[in-house]
Structures are given as structure tokens and as C-alpha cells.
Protein 1
Amino acid sequence: MIPNALRGPLFGRLGFRLMTAVAIALTPLALLAYIQTDKFESEAQARWRSALLGETLLAATPQIDLISRARGLAAATAATVLPVLGDTAACTGVMKKLTARDDMITFAGFIPTDGNMTCASTGKPFSFANSPDLLRLNSDPRPAMTVNPKGPISGESVLIFSQPVIDETGTVLGYVSLSVPHRALAQRTSTSQDDSLPSAEPLALVTFDGDGTVLTAVYGIATVAERLPAARPLADFVGKPPMTFVARTPSGDMRTFAVLAIVPEQLYLLGSWPVNVANDTSLSGVVPLWVIPLAMWVASMLVAWLTAEHQVLRHVRALRRSIIAFAGGSRTVAPPDLADAPNELRDVGDAYERMMSSVIRDEAELENSLHQKGMLLREVHHRVKNNLQLIASIMNLQMRKSVTPEARHLLKGLHDRVMSLATVHRELYQTSGLADVEADELLQTIVAQVMRMGASSERQLETRTSFDRIRLTPDQAVPLSLMLTEALTNALKHSGQRKDAGATSLSVSFHHAAPGRAVLEVTNLMAAASDPNGTSAVDSTGLGQQLLAAFASQLSGVLEVGVRDGTYVVRLDFPVQVAVPEGDADSADGWIAAPS
């Protein structure tokens, strides 16, 4: 069952329901596409991060080699000077040879644990007794790298490599110290041929220790702060796995950074790259991940809708328009063209065409049958009218041959009643529908006929009529016509008793009284000598009064006959019947009374 809320102009359309079904069917595929896209993006990001970290490591290869070489020289020198520590000249000679042989070493010396250095490549003694670096080395004697923005010997920014000198007993005698100037690191970086990254050198290559202190900087340690991420101190990366991220520098530039450990907890490398490195290789940098699955979902729905529109919906609409027009009464509508429709719709179209042909044929036969029935019924009314007129003519001949006034009076009453019946059948004969009669036309004809028959040279008749347009069934038209004839006859009898010379004035009205009811009223101003009860004009047998009561009973109406303020009144209030289809279960005679 479809809820009523989904039966509106939009939700009830076949196209909308098909699109909804397709959307539901494609939703799992869209979710799967999103998952696959996310997985692909994750793999691409992982490959990009690995490539960027590798490229950063490759770009820092000269600096890493320099640091490794310096650390190795420090360890080798510590082993070399151990035998000559007692000979200051020999120890100084070793240090001078080292600086002379290697250009990257600007200073070499042995610093005892008390800080009073006598063995140095400069040949001059120097005291480090109060140096914080010496105090730190004494508390934790191990190989170390420190940075001094202004070396005490060279006066420039240097990277100091310290190596403890230990004798056979394990006693720390002092430390070999080698100084490498930062300017030695100012050289071009190595670049790879990795196609996944653009050919661009990093903005900065920085090494830092486990405390977050910068050890080396390719472009100078003095300006290194301007090239680092502004919101993340270097100490935050210590102990963390290799990572890449995008951040803003203190100058406001967006850069891509790569951080990895060279010696965990001791030496780390940070590279800064142009931000387009990430944007060029990352799909999520161009569009959000959900855009592609959504676009595929929408495209699939569009293809499904176009297919449904071309194969089904347009044919269904054409068939619907034709059916609606045919059901609305149009019999000239052409069947829809379903030549390129699917077989099922073509079968429906063929069945619809056969149904149209059958309905049109049956309607033609029914119309022909009704026409023949109407012609026969008209002929019946015509023959009845002719027979009644023949009977009236015979009565008229008999009335002329009658000797007594009583006989002529009786024959004239019968003659008028027969002519009223003939008038009704003539109206039925002239009516096109044959199902009911225009009461205003019928009553007007009867009034004219009675007035014509009742007029004479001694009496002038003046008649006022007022009729509403009311249709009556034949079962009501016949008794109503006879009742009007009888009422007019009685009214003329009353008017015949007037003694004044004025014209006889009759008033006949037939109008709606209430929904489903009608009122017939005949009035006549009585003569002065008339019976105030209104009964003197009725024939002595009382037949007229009985006929009025009988006709009123046949019409299921309420009859009033009498004198009201010197006026003779005949008034009938009755329900009007309306036609119902033949064979209706509620009315065997085909007519029912209108609701009152």
C-alpha cells in the first residue's frame, strides 16, 4: 500500500516512482563507489607521503652525509688522540692535520673534563670550565651534536660534534670536539626523477635534535625561524612517526612540510616544499571525496530516467491522453502511435484500439435502437391523439343532436376531458426527448383550448397566466392536465354567474413552491350571486369535485378548493417526479419523486 502522502501530483507520477526505485537501487553502489574512492585516495595519499618523505630524505642526502661523516671523524679522532693525550704537542699536531686534511672541519680539539683545553688545532689553550655544554656532557657522556650560533673559537655559527674519550678502565678523560660551520651546508640539494612530484627543490632543509633545537639549516640558521611551521614547535615532532602536513609559515606562506627521524629521539629532518606538491598529486585537494560517487549516482539516475522516458513514460502519456479524451466523450481522437514502444505497451495499445472500436460500434447500435424506439413511441402518441380527437368529434356530433340541456352539458364535459387527454398526447408526440414534458407549454395550450371552447358572444374572457419552466413525467402530466381542465371548467361556471357586463377574468399559475415541489393555482373572481362556499357551480352529481380529488390523489398532492375573499380558488401542491434510468431498483415504473 502506498501512503496517501505519496499520491500527490508529484509523488504519484510514474516517472517519480521509477526514479525513486532507481535511486534506492543505486544507493549501495554509490556507497561502494565512495568507499572505493576513499580507499584509492588513502592509498594515493600514502604513496604521496612516502614519495615526499623519500624526496625530502634524498634532498637532504648531502647534509646527512656531512653529519654522518663529521660524527665518524669525531669517533676516529677520539681513538687516535687517546695514546698522545700526555703529549700536548703531539695532540695538537693530530688536530692540525685533521683540519688541514678536511675542509669542512674548521676546528678540532680535545677538551678535558675540567674544561681547560690545551690540545687544539688553533694551537691556543682555551677554558670551557663554565660551559653549559660541557656540564651536560659530563652528566651524560655520550656522542652529541650541539649548535652554537657564535662559536668561541671561529666566531661563526657552527655545528659541534662531541665524542667522549675513554681509557681502558672506562674512565672518561675528556671529549674530542669538531666544529663544522653552517656555511658548509649551504649547497644545492639532490633531486630525484620521481614523476609523482614536481621538479622543485625544497624551500628549507632543517635538522633538529630530540629537544627541538635546530642543528642545521641549508639556507642559514639565522633565518630558519622564518621557514618553519608557525603554529607547531619542532619538539612536537620528536618521537612521532614520519608525517607530512600543510601549514603556514610566519611570513604567511602556505607550505607542505615533511618530517622524519634520521636517528630516533636524537636527530630529525624537516623539509619544506611548495604547497602545490600536495595539490597536484592529491585528488581530495581538487574536489571532495563524495563528489565523484555523487556524480556517478546522479549520472546513473539521469540515464535511468532518460531510458524510462524514451521507452515507457512518453508512450504511457500518449496512451493516457487518448484514453482521457475518449472517456470524456470525444469519438474523433486518434489512437496513440506505439510503433516503437515495447511489446507490452503495444499489446495494451492494440487492446485499447479494439475497445474503442467496440464501444463506438455499440454506441452506434444503441443510438439507432433509441432512435427507432423514439419513433415508435412518437407514433403511438400520435395515433392516441388522433383517436382521442376522433372520439371528441363523435361526442361533438352527438352533443349537437342532443335535445335536453343536461345531455349537452354532460357531453360537453366529457368532450373537454377527452380534448385535454388529446392535448397531452400531442405534446408528448411533439416532444423530442419523450421522457418528460415541458409543463409550461402543455398548460398554456390547455388554457388556450379551454378558454377557446368556453368563450361566446355573450361572455368575454380575460386570462392571466404565469408558468415556471418545469418538466413533468407523462405519469404526472396527464392527471395534471385533466385537473387543470376540470378546474378551468369549474372556474368558468363561477364566472358565468356574474351579472356585471365586464370581461371574465381568470388567473392560472404554475410555479415552484419548494425544492422538489410545484403548485398549480386557478383563481376567478366570483359573481355576487354565487354560493359563498363555492359549491353551487359544481354539477349536481358532484363529479367535478370527485375528479379534482382523484387527480390530486393520483399526484400525491394537497388539494384546496373554496372561496377566499370573494375569489374562487383551486390550489394543488404536489411533489415533482424526475426521470431515472430504466430498470432502476428503487422504482419499477422508471420514475421517482424529487426530494422535498
Note: The longest helix spans residues 343-401.
Protein 2
Amino acid sequence: MEANKPTNYGAMGTLITVFFFWGFIAAGNGVFIPFCKNYFKLDQFQSQLVDFAFYGAYYIGALILFVFSALKNKDIVSSWGYKKSIVYGLLFSLLGAIAMIVTVKTGSTENGFSFFLLSFFILALGFSLQQTAANPFAMTLGDPATGSNRITLGGAINSFGTTIGPIVVAVALFGTTSVNDSLLQSLSLDKVTILYACVGLLFLAAASLFWFSKKVPDGISDSSMESAQKAMMAMIAITVLLFVCFIPIFNSYRDVSENISADDKHHLELFRMYWLVGALVVVIGGLLWANKTAQSSPIGWGALKYPQLVLGMIAIFVYVGVEVTIQSNLGELLKRPEYGSMQAADIAPYISMYWGSLMIGRWAGSIPVFKLEENTKRVLGFIVPIIAFAVVILCNIIAQKNMEPLYFYIVCIIALIIAFYMTKNKPMTTLMVFSASGVIAMVIGLMTTGVVSIYSFLCGGLFCSIMWPCIFSLSLAGLGKFETQGAAFLIMMILGGAILPPLQGKLADFPSIGIHNSYWLAVACFGYLVFFAWKVKQILQKQGIDYDESVSKASH
């Protein structure tokens, strides 16, 4: 990529439409899950399989791309070109929307849920291909030194989709933003059909926009690559072992008596936790083993021979895991007496503010993408987060949520602004400061209760907000022709969102730990991200890459 290359704003404007789709559809699942739970008479675990199928597709989709590329010794996404790959991904997601319509028309309460999960899986497979192409594509649409900022801009639009997605889906399905059990029971499946028909048309429109846009370059690059047979076998082995770990967990939910004794339940939860820890060991241990083996014999390992990528894969795994687990367990925490014994309606604004915090941070982090005077950037660095905070408050007021308890959260937004001024648009420094801030916020949340503790845990969203582009760009630095392959590996690690949240949940089930102390897992996650920021700097310097310095020069 060419240094000081001007940003292709026309292509970037088109590209961020797919970032919006990812957030909009994924957040809409939050409305769809309670519908499935009610309509198909599911328990809480079974209803969560919607998210499991959705996010699991990212891992499987990226793995399939890598396996085919490894077998052909050719990077498929690069040979298609980023533009075509995104179009193919959008059309594949269109198939998922069509499958959803067919499922609604032909399914039944007896077996229809399995087809619903399959439809979600197909739709998300398309997202996997889009993400594998879109993130490195954003890196190429300008100076590589500001590539992480372009990904942050995409993330900002993604978060806006996350913010309005539940509101739009709720209005489309129920005619109101306030969804209750009676509305869930009265929902007509015809409305689900109409919703996904509209979603399918949007996918088709976006694919057409990409295909016919003259502003979007093809993004075709040299697709030949070294043999990566060893890396392929390692990833397949990790996948098989993950299935081995998850099958006993799923089987343990079958035929469990409602009158199970407390002692038997304790042993059952311990059994499930052991297998979840096993899955964690399989991913982290397998990746570290692969990289260590590749150091002595790099032929056949492809992108896995780069330590910055392997450590970055673990960082993405941990980042996605901590981002999801903070909010996934927050509802249960707020039900505790020391937090006011909140009910579902009271909890909703806090969950919304957590996801809104991601949008606030990403809006602020995307400012350097635009060619502006330094003084203007400094002013916007203060104003934009405040505006984003106001947008989150307003969207939730429209959704009929009581946001008064969160007005003083503006203090945390000021802390975010100070953190941004400290980092000076340097990815390594940004990751270090925000990860360390995450550790501090989680520890404060653990050491206190009430409003201070709640705000501290919500700050996890603020400090997670711009980690993805920082980790992504640092992990791909110096990979050259292995960049797209490395991007596919990083997308696989979204799997962290399927392993770490239930692991925290199992920790919380033990009386000696409880839901509050289970957040030490979040401290450990942020702690690893601090380590990654420190370690990747050493690795890149050894390779002659001063990533932070190049970004600093490009932004001034």
C-alpha cells in the first residue's frame, strides 16, 4: 500500500453500508430471540442458540474460505477481489433472508426452530465473507498508517446500526418500541416474512450498489501464496476439538429433571464449566503451539508463522469475548439487592447504554479519517462524543426507556475524551491506554456497588469501542501477501463471543464466586490486551516496523 495515499472517500462511503448491515441485523436478533423463545416454547439456553448459530457462522465461514485457499494455494478473496467478495457475501446473505421467508411459510412449532437457526447461519455466512473482505479493503482505501481509523469509521456506522436496529425491528414486527409478553404471543408470522423480504431487498440493493459503483476499485491483488497445508490441518484439528468440547455441554441440557437437587446441579454446572475451559485451552493452546512450531519450520504454516498475527488472533478472541460477556451478564448483576434488585424494564436502559458506549467511542475514533485541520480535530474530539451520547439518549427515549439514571454517565464520556487526547492517534498507544483503562474500570466495578460500580462496568463499552481496528491493523502489519489470509483468521476469532460469556456465567453459578466476582474474568481479558499492546510493539520493531511512529507522522 502506498504511503500518504489519499483516502478514497467515494469507495469508503459505499463500503460502510455493509458495516451498517452487520450491526443492524445482529442487534435485531435481540428482538427476535424472545419471539423464538415464546413461539417455539424454548428455555433460555435454547433461545440463545440464535446468537450461537449467528456468530458461529463467522468462524465456520472464515475457516471454509481458508481451507479452500490452502487447498488451491491461492487466496480466494484476493483473486476474486475485495469488491466481488463483498458482492458475493451480500448475495449469500440474501439467500439467508430467502431461507428465513421459506422457513416462516413452511415451518412448524415442532421442527421449525431448527430451520430458523439454519437460516440465521446462512445469513451470517454471508456476513463472514463480507467481513473477511471489508476490513482489509478499508485498509487499502488510503494511507496504510490511517487504516485503523477507516475501520473505526466503519465500526461507528456499525454501532449506529446496532443502536437503531432493535427499534426498527420492534416497530416493524410489533408496531411499537415497547415489547412485552402479550405482544410476543400475538405476533403474526406474516410480519416476519415482510421484515425479511425487506432485509433481502436491502441486501440486493447493496450488492447492486457495489457492483455498479465506479468509485469502488476491484481490489484484486496477487492471489498466489505459499503452501499453508500445516496451518489448514492445525485449524481443522482445533475445530474438531472444539466440537468435542461443546457436544457434552449441549447433551447435558437434555432430559434434565426440573427437580434436580442443588448438589447435582452444582456438579452439572461444574461439568459444563470444565468443558468450556477445555474449549478455551484448545483455542489459545492450539494457536500458540502452531506459531511455536512454525518458528522452527515456517514452510506450510502460511500466516500463522507471524507471531503478531497469532497473538492478535487471541487478542480478537479475548476482545470479542469481553465485549459480549460484560453486557451478557450485566442483567443478572443488576438484579442483585446491592444493585437495587432491578426488574427487566429497569435493566434495559443500562444494556442500551452499554452498546451505545461502543458507538460513542467509535464516532470519536473515526475523526482522523477526515482531512481536517489539527485544531478542528481537537474541537471535534470533544464535541463528537457528546453528540453521540445525546443520540444514544434520544434513541432510547424514543424507545420509551427511562434514561434519567444515566444522565451523569457524561462524566465517563469526559474520561473517554481525555483518553483519546492521550493516545494521539497511535494504534499501539491507543490499545495500551484503553486496555489499561478497561482493567481499572473493571476493578473499580468489582470493588464497589451501586451507581459507581454500574458506570464502571458500562465503561467497558467505551474502552472496547476502538479495540477492533487497533488489534486488526497491528495483527496484519508486515504480513504482505498473507494479509487477506490473516484477516480470515482474525474473523474466525469472533468465536470468543461464544465461549467467554458462558464461561463467566458458569463461574457466577458457584456460590463461592457469584455474579459480581465473576467479572474478574473481564479483568483478565483486558489484562491480556495490555500485554498484547506491549508485546506487539516489540515484535514489529524486530521486523523493522515502527507502526505507531508512521501513524503519528501521517496524522500531523
Note: The chain is about 75% helix and 0% strand.
